[in-house]
Specification:
It is a single chain. This protein has four helices and no strands. With 99 residues, it is mainly alpha-helical. It has two domains: 34 residues, no CATH class; 46 residues. The radius of gyration is 33 Å and the shape is elongated.
Length: 99
């Protein structure tokens, strides 16, 4: 049996090494240069994709919806009121997720 040029390398490792080096010769030079480390910019631009006004709008919408829900819960006085509330919530859920 013929021995490999570097003792300690298996045939599988040897094929990986030689195959990888052969593949790099097939790549165009600009592609190899583009894989080199790019310098990291010293100042990063902030990612403010949504202006503050849009965020504030959605916060207002959520708070208004929460207030409506809390007012509905506070208005419950009797067992019949609670059962009606549960029925209305189930209808809303069925309307959103049902057929």
């Amino acid at each position: 049996m013929q021995s490999l040029p570097f003792p300690g390398l298996s045939r599988r490792q040897w094929f990986h090494l030689t195959g990888g080096s052969a593949f790099t010769h097939l790549l165009p030079l600009p592609l190899l240069k583009s894989q080199q480390k790019q310098p990291i910019p010293t100042t990063l631009t902030p990612l403010n994709r949504f202006p503050r006004m849009v965020q504030d709008f959605y916060v207002e919408q959520v708070r208004a919806a929460e207030k409506i829900g809390l007012d509905g819960l506070a208005a419950l006085k009797t067992k019949a009121d609670a059962e009606g509330y549960v029925r209305s919530v189930r209808e809303k859920i069925a309307k959103c997720f049902g057929p």
